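Today's session is about reading a structure prediction critically. Students often jump straight to the picture, but the first step is always the sequence itself: look for stretches that repeat, for charged clusters, for runs of hydrophobic residues. Only then move on to the predicted structure, which in these notes is written as discrete structure tokens rather than atom positions. Here is the chain we will use throughout the hour.
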Amino acid sequence: MSSRHLLLVPAVCALAACPPRVDFGKDGEAKSPDELLRRIAVAETQVIGLKGDSKLTVEAPQGKGSTSAFIAVLHPAFLHVEQLDFFGRPQGVLVTDGTSFGLLDSQAGKYFRGPASPANLGRFLPVVLPPQELAAILLGRVPRIATTASQMGLDEKKGVYTLVLRRGEVTQRLEVDPKSGRVVHSTVEGMTAYELEFGDLSAYGPLTFPRELVLKVPAASTTLELRWREVTLNDATDLTLYDQAPPENVPVVELDARGAEVAPEPPPSPDAK
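Below is the predicted structure for this chain, in token form.
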């Protein structure tokens, strides 16, 4: 082929919308679903903790709004979430270790505590998830169904692996970044579930972490968007962030696992023996 013809190749590809070359990273192309799942697990489990400032946007039937938030997460289920006002002052603080939770509601002037159930965490966040699952998502992980069958492909136009997991009537479809092994999109069919999307994959030394998260809950007509402004990964753990001691001089309200208030026990009668 002449040099003149070689010069025409880029122009022909542009006109034909040739897909970009897929970057498979240092490990090369994955050859099987099991190999791809192992790469996903390696990418996700390298980040075990984080803390940082973010912008949180919620769209729900009640309306749409945004707030600044400080968030700290430690695997498997430690969470500390502060909703901040314009001046950076906490308006609400949620803390859980995965078993119990505490919630300071500054507007109500009360401190709620009880089991770390989805209903109780839902008092503060617009999604009803167990703490282990919420922590995993905030760490950039995608919970996956237990699978009995899997199928892998490559979408060259999008530049992603496609991975389909099946168990009975339930199907989970994943899109995976070939270079980092990070899941960038997840949908589940055959059961009530949520959709996850991760974006702005960024390098932190040898690690890759998504700075954008979108969680959609179609059954509740709710979408949560999280954008990290600053985030630190795998920093020295400050366990005081997960302390659930109520502030002084703030009334404490006990809750059960359903989120209902538990009436305080009456004081013992003076005549009781």
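Discussion point for the tutorial: Residues 151 and 257 are 39 Å apart (CA to CA).
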